[in-house]
Design goal:
By secondary structure, this protein is of the alpha+beta class. It has a single domain (about 1-80), classed as NE1680-like fold (Roll). The protein is built from 2 helices and 4 strands. The protein has helices at about 30-40, 65-75, and strands at about 1-10, 15-25, 50-60, 75-80. The longest helix has 11 residues, at about 30-40. The protein starts with a strand and ends with a strand. This is DUF2024 family protein. InterPro entries: DUF2024, NE1680-like_sf. It holds the Pfam family DUF2024.
Length: about 80
């Protein structure tokens, strides 16, 4: 499976810096922002507490089996950096 990697940087109002990649397949490229927000919500960071952030396409690569399974089950995979 080929996946697309979106490099994501978030600065919170509290001054925290969060860096992660959102990995998706061809079918979910239009949902990257939604997946990033879902991940941030799971960390307790809501959109209203983000000072600055961006999510940019970085590159495409072959997915390892764990990432493939996560994408098949949830539509995306997150790698915290």
């Amino acid at each position: 499976m080929n996946v697309h990697v979106y490099d994501t940087h978030v600065y919170t109002i509290a001054g925290e810096y969060i860096h992660f990649d959102v990995l998706v397949d061809d079918h979910n490229k239009d949902k990257v922002q939604q997946f990033a927000e879902t991940y941030l919500n799971s960390l307790g960071v809501s959109v209203d507490r983000i000072k600055q952030g961006h999510c940019n396409f970085c590159h495409s690569e072959s997915a390892n089996p764990e990432v493939q399974l996560q994408i098949e089950q949830h539509g995306y995979s997150i790698i915290r950096l």
